[in-house]
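Quarterly update, task 2.4: FE2/S2 (inorganic) cluster-bound model.
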Amino acid sequence: MTQEHCSQTIHVFKKEMQICSLDELPAVGGVERMVETENGRLRLVLFRHEGGVVAYVNGCKHFTGTPLNPNGVGNFLHPKNSNLIRCGVHGALYRLANGACVEGECDGKGLDRVAVTVRDGYVISNCS
Ligand code: FES
């Protein structure tokens, strides 16, 4: 049995900003958005989840900085289990709900979760 490695929530925003409209997120699958932070551009991937939204840095823990969707292909999810995010490079699996790594070359780490909230139909960065 593979041991799960937890993700951590990171706070990259100093102020609230709109990341995207909730309507831009499909019922199943992730959407990538580039955002500007005080520390530069960041690739985020956002998913609908249990009536809300979860957001992660689009970077696999196997090779730091490698996007989970090489060449922008795919919807980020395991084709047979939509509760798992699958890295399209070497297949590491992360739990959609919390970013924990459940299988593969995750280097003992989960995805970096970014705090967001939904308000008035928009996904908003959470700076607190
Ligand atoms: S870069 Fe993601 S599993 Fe290798």
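Highlight for this quarter: The pocket of FE2/S2 (inorganic) cluster is lined by residues 60, 62-63, 66, 87, 89-92, 104-105 (CB under 6 Å).
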